[in-house]
Structures are given as structure tokens and as C-alpha cells.
Design a protein that fits this description.
Layout: H1 2-13, E1 23-26, E2 32-37, H2 47-61, E3 64-72, E4 80-82, H3 89-101, E5 113-123, E6 143-151, E7 156-161, H4 171-174, H5 178-186, H6 188-191, E8 196-199
Parallel strand pairs: 1-8, 2-7, 3-6
Antiparallel strand pairs: 3-4, 5-6
Amino acid sequence: MDDANAVTENGNSHQTSLSDSSVLDVYPLSCYYFGSRESVPFKNETVADRVLRMKANYDAYGMRNCVAAVIVNSIYKLPGGRLRPGESDIQCLKRKLSSKLSAGEDGRGPEWEVGECLGIWWRPGLETLLYPYLPPNSKRPKECIKLFLVKLPTSRRFIVPKNFKLLAVPLCQLHDNDETYGPIISGVPQLLSKFTFNFVEP
């Protein structure tokens, strides 16, 4: 609660210099419904198998283009995935959000509001780590992941596979916690630092 108050007070002190697009409405978790559906099988592969699969895909299709959603409240593993041929970043992200979170409920749910691109991560080689920049010596990167801000409406249903968990993690817990969440998710608080959070009471 102290962290939330500090963010609110700090945001209000700079409110006059921020546009509406820099203000994120954050609603209580009680506004959202969380359910489950049948489990999704995992790929049973070793690191070596994954490298071989990525190499085969790279040889066939070129650099792997992916998108991921930063949702406030946030999620432990950012939902998203690989673009289909001819598909835009936004189209892919909306498709992946609906299929992985089943929130659209056969098109009856509210449309996903995909905002600006917050950051881009690059994988220079098949066996290398992801970087928040493209190294100058990398001429043929193997993967590009773009992080987009996704704003939640006042209410939404989330349905995830039974072998997955959907978590709302405080930004203070994510910050600089690379060991637990990895470099992309632990860097989300810094990406969101330019926004003011408007905590909406139920």
C-alpha cells in the first residue's frame, strides 16, 4: 500500500505535464473473473532440441518475429507468440491474447486495447541470450520480440489452461528480480515508469 500511495502522490505532482495517453487506469482484481479450461501440452524437448527447431525454422522462414503483452495488472509469463506470414504485430497479439487467455469468449468479450510498443528485445544467435538492443556485430538476428502495452477494461473474464497460472504481480516485486522472472519481465517496471497510475476504486 505504501508503494501504491507513493506512485499516486508522485504521479499527481507531475499530472499537469502528462497527457491522457500517459495515464493508466488500474482496477482492483475483484473486477475480474479468473477460470480454467483443459490443460495445454508442453513441448517435451531439451535445450539442444529447441536450438535445432529454431535453426530449422530460421532456415525456412528467417528471423522469428514475436509479440508479447504487458498487462496492468501484469502476468508472470507475458502472453504472446509468433507472427503468422503477413500478419501485423497488433493482429498477432490480439489473436494470441484471445487464444491463450480465452477472454474473448467466442468474440462476445470486449476488444483488446493494444497500445504503444514499450520495448524490443533481440536474440542475435540461436544459443545466445535476449538483449534489449541489437548488438552492432549481429547482421542476421534470429528472433525479435516486441512488448506492447495492453490496457484492461473495467471488467473482463480470463480463462487459462489448468496447467498454467495467471498471476497479478506487484511492480515492486518484478523490479530488478531477474533471477525469478527473467530479464524481460523484471524490466517491465522501468518501461512503465513514464506512466502515471490512476488507481480506480470499485
